[in-house]
Amino acid sequence: MSFGIAALAGALFAVGLAISGMTSPAKITAFLDIGGAWDPALAFVMVGAIAVYASLQRIIRRRVAPVLADRFHVPVARRIDARLVAGAALFGVGWGVSGYCPGPALVSLGGGTASALIFVVAMIGGVAFARRFAPG
Amino acid sequence: MSLASIVQGLAGGALIGLACALALLAHGRIAGISGILGHALDGGSARRFRLGFLAGLIGAGALVALVAPSALGERVRGLPAIALAGLLVGFGTTLGGGCTSGHGVCGVSHGSRRSIVAVLTFMTSAAITVAVVGARS
User: Fold this and answer.
1) What residues of chain B, 60 to 99, have a C-beta less than 8 Å from chain A?
2) Residue A43 CB neighbours (<10 A)
3) Which residue of A has its CA nearest to B92?
4) How far is B102 from chain A (nearest CA, A)?
5) What residues have CB less than 8 Å from B60, skipping those under 6 apart?
6) Contacts of A71 in chain B (CB under 8 A)
7) Mean of the pLDDT values across residues A122-128?
8) pLDDT tens-place values along chain B, 137 residues long
9) At what angle do helices B79-96 and B113-133 cross, to 10 degrees?
10) Which A positions 60-89 lie with beta carbon below 8 A of chain B?
11) Contact state of B109 with A54 under an 8 Å Cβ cutoff
12) CB pair distance less than 8 Å for A73 and B15
């Protein structure tokens, strides 16, 4: 049950990415190409996602606990430091180069896109490298 | 930008928002993909959530390839550049504690100032990157 509900959430997330165009690297780089042939359509993905989630999370968090777990695990860190900014900046460079962020890369991997496989293997390497050499 | 792409963006975004809400309601967890992937093999109670979410995400990708293969776009860069980008994304999201989903959708919706700073930072660095290397090569 627990695994199945999580899988349903993952599948919904993937279908949302695919419908919205987020699994197309060319659409991502066109969205980021503000000084060039800018295509702002993907901004509406963020608008739709935040509109739905921001309203629902307010209602959900009135509960004492989630349905299948004993408590909520929402991040509470507040510190804005060099680690946050440097990490986000490096992520943005990789996103701009490839047109892949982690979700769409995993969806494309499931769809058999060879370049997404290479991206995901390298991404796992990057995670391991950060954990080994820059532990938080 | 066409009306259709705006509607698709809003509809797809709404589904993403629903998926995040389901993760929070059922498991009490943020649907941040980089964190889910990075901690997939950690032990503890969240393991089933993380592995289930990844199975759904990747499995639905196979379904998308069958039903709407054109949604999974072609690469815009050579394979060495894509491998380097993967390394940067894995390293950067681990350091920065999130990506487009965890910071961009969930963190911003929770009103986290950390997430707002992260989103502004990665949007800016991604736009600068595309300005430098072009939208495709």
Assistant:
1) 60-65, 68-69, 71-77, 79, 81-97, 99
2) 14
3) A87
4) 10
5) A10, A11, A12, A13, A14, A15, A18, A107, A110
6) 28
7) 98
8) 789 999 999 999 999 999 999 999 999 999 999 999 999 989 888 999 999 999 999 999 999 999 999 999 999 999 999 999 999 999 999 999 999 999 999 999 999 999 999 999 999 999 999 999 999 98
9) 160
10) 60-61, 63, 65-75, 77-80, 83-89
11) yes
12) no
Chain B CB within 8 Å of residue A117 CB:
no
Q: Is B100 helix (H, G, I), strand (E, B) or coil?
A: helix
Contact B64, A16 (CB under 8 A): no
Tokens of A4: 């199945």
Instruction: Give me the interface pTM, i.e. the ipTM.
Output: 0.97
Residue spans of the domains in chain B: they are 3-133
Q: Give the dihedral sign, CA A128/A119/B55/B109.
A: positive
- Distance CA(B93)–CA(B36), nearest Å, equals 11
For residues B136 and B75, what is the distance between their CA atoms, to the nearest angstrom? 9
CA distance B123 to chain A (A): 6
Q: Which two tokens stand for residue A94?
A: 């990789």
Q: Which tokens in the block code for residue A48?
A: 């739709």
- The DSSP 8-state label assigned to residue B74 in this structure reads P
